[in-house]
From TrEMBL:
Keyword terms, alphabetized: Flavoprotein, FMN, Monooxygenase, Nucleotide-binding, Oxidoreductase
Keyword Iron in annotation: no
Biological or metabolic pathway of the protein: Sulfur metabolism; dibenzothiophene degradation
One Gene Ontology molecular-function label: flavin adenine dinucleotide binding
Protein's UniProt name: Dibenzothiophene monooxygenase
Acyl-CoA dehydrogenase C-terminal domain sequence ranges: 270-387
Pfam families: Acyl-CoA_dh_2, Acyl-CoA_dh_M, Acyl-CoA_dh_N
Family under the similarity heading: Belongs to the DszC flavin monooxygenase family.
Main location: cytoplasm
Keyword Oxidoreductase: yes
Reaction(s) catalysed (UniProt annotation): dibenzothiophene + FMNH2 + O2 = dibenzothiophene 5-oxide + FMN + H2O + H(+); dibenzothiophene + 2 FMNH2 + 2 O2 = dibenzothiophene 5,5-dioxide + 2 FMN + 2 H2O + 2 H(+); dibenzothiophene 5-oxide + FMNH2 + O2 = dibenzothiophene 5,5-dioxide + FMN + H2O + H(+)
Length: 415
């Protein structure tokens, strides 16, 4: 019998919908039973959690954000974030890579309903996304999200250097992506690239979002993968050399990604649920350990020392503050946010990413030497949680950068 943890967001206290309550309960049960026992292996080997993906397909989780009338579970933004946080508690690498996959359905599904498109463009979009959704639901196809290139593009400050040139029936793609989680393991790479118009300068407005089959001639995976944390993400480099993709590979119509990034910026918050889950996991570990209840450790209680109690209180304060801010932000996410909502979203991202690691750091110091042995999950949580602040486009630094500037300057103001 798997021991069930309490929900991160209690359905009654946080007034979750019945759908959210059911999805988060399912994720918690699945995470504890399936993900947690396997997590150490992916981390040790820096190998991809293929078995987890097979099981997630069986559970319908690969289609969590595919609209219900198209065969998926129909989760919206908040329902997805809450569910992903529960999975992140049990295996950071699985939750993070699952996020890359889910975004290929959330961004092309629920999110596009809030964006403007001509009726015929929307009809083509619906027909095309159906092709991707069918592969996911029927075959368990997994999509990744390799955007980063090592320059300013993934931060949103320049056009992507990976290009797509129109040819008969489709596009020819050329370029390189770095840190491509699921490299060599996804069936499709959902890449962002720039449509190249002859000699014109590349423009962010011409960003295309294409689902490139991993088996297409000209696609190669290269480089080592031996990082500090999130080792199971297998984020190696991807090369595209004259890769042909048909028109129907488009996950969004031309111009729509630029509109989404400008009008629905909370889309970039989808990396944070994994780290919300890791923050909870670090706290849970510390409480269990100090109570002498952590499996794999002797039943020695350490909770009677005032220093431990203060540390746990500090962790709890950080956790509650993180949860409250994050919950508000995922609740109000939507198109055309106000300046206040935007500043709050950036603050939430920064808080989750930094506090997840701060709580894990404090948990290690408080529990002590035995708690950071590789036989226990805390040291993995500590390493995995360190990676959140580095994820573009909303790295912890870039969040601070934008909050400071946008709080002090109104649009058009300069000194
Ligand atoms: C475990 C893991 C998995 C990942 N998976 C994926 C994935 O699946 N897909 C994907 O696309 N990427 C992925 N990434 C990459 C990630 O989003 C970043 O692109 C990557 O961490 C950037 O590393 P870099 O050294 O190139 O950073 P740099 O671009 O050199 O940036 C270093 C720091 O400088 C700051 N900075 C960057 N640009 C600017 C700017 N314009 N102005 C001011 N400051 C700036 C930021 O704070 C940044 O953290 C992953 C990263 C990790 C660690």
């Amino acid at each position: 019998m798997t021991r069930m943890d309490a929900p991160i967001f209690d359905p009654a206290a946080f007034r979750l919908t019945a759908e959210e309550a059911a999805l988060t309960a399912k994720a918690r049960e699945f995470g504890a039973r399936v993900l947690a026992p396997r997590a150490a292996r992916w981390d040790r080997e820096a190998s991809f959690p293929t078995d987890n993906y097979r099981d997630m397909h069986r559970e319908g989780l690969l289609g969590i954000c595919i609209p219900a009338d198209e065969g998926g579970l129909g989760a919206g933004f908040r329902a997805y974030c809450l569910t992903a946080a529960e999975l992140g508690r049990y295996c950071g690498a699985t939750a993070l890579t699952w996020n890359m996959h889910v975004c290929s359905t959330l961004w092309t599904g629920a999110l596009t309903e809030d964006l403007e498109m001509e009726a015929d463009t929307r009809a083509v979009h619906r027909r095309r996304r159906r092709i991707h959704y069918d592969r996911i639901l029927r075959d368990g196809a997994v999509y990744s999200q390799p955007f980063s290139e090592g320059g300013a593009a993934a931060a949103g400050a320049a056009a992507f250097g990976t290009t797509a040139r129109r040819v008969d029936g489709g596009f020819l793609v050329n370029g390189k992506k770095i840190f491509a989680s699921l490299a060599g393991h996804a069936e499709y790479y959902g890449i962002l690239c720039t449509e190249q118009h002859d000699e014109q300068k590349l423009s962010r407005r011409d960003t295309l979002y294409l689902g490139v089959p991993a088996t297409a001639p000209g696609v190669t995976v290269e480089g080592e993968w031996d990082p500090l944390g999130m080792r199971g993400t297998v984020s190696r480099n991807l090369l595209f050399k004259d890769v042909f993709v048909p028109e129907d590979a488009a996950l969004m119509p031309a111009g729509l990604y630029f509109q989404a990034a400008s009008r629905w910026p909370h889309m970039f918050l989808t990396l944070s649920p994994t780290y919300m889950g890791l923050a909870q996991a670090a706290y849970d570990f510390c409480v269990r350990y100090l109570r002498g209840e952590q499996p794999g450790t002797p039943p020695v209680k350490r909770r009677m020392y005032p220093t431990k109690q203060i540390a746990v209180a500090q962790m709890r304060v950080m956790l509650e503050a993180t949860k409250a801010l994050w919950f508000q932000v995922i609740t109000e996410a939507g198109p055309d946010p106000t300046k206040e909502q935007m500043l709050r979203a950036l603050a939430a991202q920064h808080t989750v990413m930094e506090n997840a690691n701060a709580i894990a750091t404090l948990a290690i110091r408080t529990c002590g030497g035995q708690s950071m042995l590789k036989s226990l999950p805390l040291e993995r949580i500590y390493r995995d949680s360190r990676c959140g602040a580095l994820m573009l486009p909303w790295t912890a630094e870039l969040c601070l950068d934008r909050i400071g500037r946008e709080a002090l300057y109104e649009k058009g103001e300069t000194d």
